[in-house]
Specification:
Blueprint: H1 7-32, H2 38-71
Length: about 80
């Protein structure tokens, strides 16, 4: 098992992977359609997107958490 102290990084890795997978699929279908070579083009787009998305999630998550904290209150 992975130590709990790595949970935020693991969460960022999984979140960025799933979101970049979905967004790259939509963008690839939109740009190329479901033609021959779609899967290869999609996987390439996903790899590039994930390389950018993972560090972005790690950098932006603390800012997003702070904004959420400012915009919400205990009930």
């Amino acid at each position: 098992m992975i130590p709990r102290r790595y949970a935020p990084v693991l969460f960022g890795l999984l979140l960025s992977g799933i979101m970049s997978l979905l967004v790259s699929a939509v963008a690839t279908v939109s740009a190329r359609g479901l033609l021959t070579g779609f899967a290869a083009a999609w996987m390439h787009a996903w790899a590039v997107a994930w390389l950018l998305a993972f560090p972005a999630v790690l950098l932006v998550a603390p800012v997003a958490r702070r904004f959420v904290s400012l915009l919400t209150k205990e009930t």
